[in-house]
Fold:
Amino acid sequence: MSKKIQDPLQVKPIDLLDFIKFIHELGLSPYSQARIVSGIKGFYKYLSYEKFISVDPSELLELPRLGRKLPDTLSIHEIDQLFEAIDMSKASGPRDRAMAETLYSAGLRVSELVTLKISNIYDDVGFLRILGKGNKERLTPIGKSALKFIKFYQYEVRNHVQIKPGHEDYLFLNRLGSRISRVSVFTLIKNLALRAGIRKKISPHTFRHSFATHLIEGGADLRAVQEMLGHESITTTEIYTHLDRDYLKQMIKEFHPRS
Structure:
């Protein structure tokens, strides 16, 4: 760094550029650098908002480019293994199977799963009305298998649960009759992976990644997948095309005679 700055109100853009160069040369990862730059920009945005400074020296700072981390996915066989690991003889079995099937069949976020309401299930046409991020609603299709397990849980198990006031319309309930929590779903998926002998680090979101990946691998239109996932920008959905390319390259390696 060119010099030590004592007063942050006197910092100039060149000083910040020197600092960014300094942390880069320290060997910090791009993610660590991005967090530092984000903190600096937030700090000077606050100073500008409070009128401590008239010019924001961090305005032209750019975050380092971060490579997209491809999410873990499950194969169709692994999905089946997880489903089969659910003990349907237990009181919680039908509910757990219905939740797992719904996560995979509709590509829901865990927050969307736990807030899914019976009144938003249109089983006659095979659609769910989902309240997603930013309170944005979308209609997403759901498969017959998931609907079958939802109905089984609803009529064979849920109907016999004493439901707490205010939770009557939520589909998935805990044993006390309240809406099931996100933590409970995370714990369920973790335990299922252990029972199924799957060593990948998975979470409820893995079902969503797998849903999208299997659709893209099967030739689904990217815009259609974007709508089903509730992504505001198609660039978010495009990560699954990278997964698809990896899959295609693997097929070439395994089956092409001149690979």
In short: The chain has a mean pLDDT of 83. Strands lie at 121-122, 127-131, 137-141. The longest strand covers residues 127-131.
